[in-house]
Amino acid sequence: MKPGKFITFEGIDGAGKSTHLAYVADLLRSAGRQVVLTREPGGTPLGEKLRELILHEPMHIETEALLVFAARREHLAQLIGPALARGDWVISDRFTDATFAYQGGGRGLPFERLEMLENWVHPHLQPDLTLLFDVPLEVARARLDAAREPDRFERERADFFAATRAAYLRRAHDFPERFRLIDSSRPIGAIQNELRAVIDDLAGQA
Ligand SMILES: Nc1ncnc2c1ncn2[C@@H]1O[C@H](COP(=O)(O)OP(=O)(O)O)[C@@H](O)[C@H]1O
Ligand SMILES: Cc1cn([C@H]2C[C@H](O)[C@@H](COP(=O)(O)OP(=O)(O)O)O2)c(=O)[nH]c1=O
């Protein structure tokens, strides 16, 4: 059996990440892979309950960081781990890089503290590929304003998203072997062409 791979989608709210999830899942399914599509916070019944709290309930920033990692612990145990063990491909709409970006960059929690939690919750597992959808803040904001009602994060001010975006870019810089930076200010078709090439490459290796 060919082993599955773990792909994560990241980017600030409004970058266009959700737009491309189904496209990438379909590419892989057409190539004959079993695909599990999931999201964070969430992905399990308990994780989805925690998501409701994280997105809508005011709380201390450390509580927020602990809850996203609690949801992730459950996600790894119930869904991600078993799926990868079966040889499925797992695509997650956000993972630990989002905690470094939002709780670290946006909220200002020290990266070292988040690294402690990362080392506790998944000391050995990292995504095989992280697609970072990157856009200027004004583009993301304009897309969000046109698209939906904001949650607790989407109501944050521009400086929060500037810090979140910077933290994402720092992660990409620190882990170049698994990050792929996608210029998401381009038209959807151009982004899909790039995604097809990246996914063909990865699927060809496995
Ligand atoms: N490349 C793009 N060009 C123009 N609009 C886009 C593009 N990508 C996404 N959008 C639109 O922007 C909005 C936010 O996209 P979404 O995928 O929900 O972002 P995210 O999941 O990153 O928050 C949606 O209305 C979507 O249709
Ligand atoms: C996974 C994760 C998400 N988040 C935030 C980022 C997003 O604003 C929010 C999840 O929303 P998102 O995945 O963007 O879902 P939607 O497209 O429905 O808005 O949770 C964190 O703050 N830390 C985390 O570790």
Helix and strand layout, with pairings?
Blueprint: E1 6-10, H1 17-30, E2 35-39, H2 45-56, H3 61-86, E3 89-93, H4 96-106, H5 111-121, E4 129-134, H6 137-147, H7 158-174, E5 179-183, H8 188-205
Parallel strand pairs: 1-3, 1-4, 2-3, 4-5
The chain binds adenosine-5'-diphosphate and thymidine-5'-diphosphate.
Family: Belongs to the thymidylate kinase family.
Protein name: Thymidylate kinase
Keywords: ATP-binding, Kinase, Nucleotide biosynthesis, Nucleotide-binding, Transferase
Describe the structure in your own words.
InterPro entries: P-loop_NTPase, Thymidylate_kin-like_dom, Thymidylate_kinase. It holds the Pfam family Thymidylate_kin. Belongs to the thymidylate kinase family. It is an enzyme of class 2 (transferase). It comes from Noviherbaspirillum aridicola. There is one protein chain. The chain is of the alpha/beta class and 206 residues long. It has a single domain, classed as Rossmann fold (3-Layer(aba) Sandwich). Helix content is 58%, strand content 13%. It has eight helices and five strands. It has helices at residues 17-30, 45-56, 61-86, 96-106, 111-121, 137-147, 158-174, 188-205, and strands spanning 6-10, 35-39, 89-93, 129-134, 179-183. It has a five-stranded parallel beta sheet with strand order 2-3-1-4-5, with helices on both faces. Helix 1 packs across helix 8, helix 2 (45-56) runs antiparallel to helix 3 (61-86) and helix 4 (96-106) crosses helix 7. It is globular. The chain starts with 5 loop residues before the first strand and ends with a helix. The model has no long low-confidence stretch (mean pLDDT 95). The site of thymidine-5'-diphosphate has 15 residues, from helix 4.
